[in-house]
Write a structure and sequence with these properties.
Distance between the termini: 15 Å
Shape: globular
Helix content: 40-55%
Structural class: alpha/beta
Order of helices and strands: EEEHEEHHEHHHEEEHHHHHEHHEH
Number of helices: 14
Number of strands: 11
Strand order of the largest sheet: 3-2-1-4-6-5
Amino acid sequence: MVALVARAVVLALNSGSSSLKYGLYEVDDAAVLLFGGTIETTDDHGHVFDAIERALRGWPAPTVIGHRIVHGGPHRDAHCRIDDAVMADLATACAFAPLHGPASLALIRVAGARYPGVPQVACFDTAFHAGMPDLATTLPIPRAYRASGIRRYGFHGLSCESIVRQLGSELPARLVIAHLGNGASVTAVRDGRSIDTSMGLTPTGGVMMATRTGDLDPGVLLHLLRETGLDAPALATLVDHASGMAGVSGVSGDMRILRAAATDESDLAIRMFERSVCKQVAAMIASLGGADMLVLTGGIGEHDARTARAIRAGLAWVPGLDIRILPSQEDVQIARHAATLA
């Protein structure tokens, strides 16, 4: 195993769809958070770094910067230092993640301008799933399309890595990880390695989410194309921003708001989400041939006790399933990878 750089100071950047989490870590054998926060993002990444630099005034300057990259595309399946070749591949990967890719590229460029000479590391959410068998990665479409990189990639890999690391010696042979937040996915882990997962080519599939459809009969989209005249951008907005719990409830995709609303529609949205999670967990149990442990993580998985109870009840038929709640520590994983690869 590659040794960590002695006392690296890592600025970990975890960019989401509307906010950016940052943390300054001192990394030796462990990763110790010195300071961190969250910034609402805009198109102006210079503004983001102005805010970060003000917050970190008086703290040590970073010796390496680590970025969470949602989609590595077909040519990047391992965390790596960022150079021109990596940037070119990330630009290509934007076709697979148009919501996240361009923003990540812009953030890397601004970080390079603000911290010239400081190495930057790409930490891919897809990397944890890179070794999945062909039975999991292959989508049921013609080979000609698969050759262009259309396959199951899987996401929330940094979160899954952090769960495996936290379990340590308690890691079971057959583990299911349910990362439940605004984005949600379920992953089957055998002996510490991903063998199947609910998200596919993009982070839109699988579990019904806050504003994303999750798995959806593709005939629905074909029907909308034919009968309503919706074009590709409108369909993208529909499946990523206007559906899921927000679409069903007509209120919000935020679980806290839905709980407080207590309407018939909000209750239906919550119950659909809970059922969707249970169905995906059951699918991963089938891929594993049984399960020893289920870990709930992510904002909903860690903090919404009613969802946890509903999932426990929905999976009561699974014999001997140990269900635990653990924090998602994506930023720690970014810091550790960045220190290793600097």
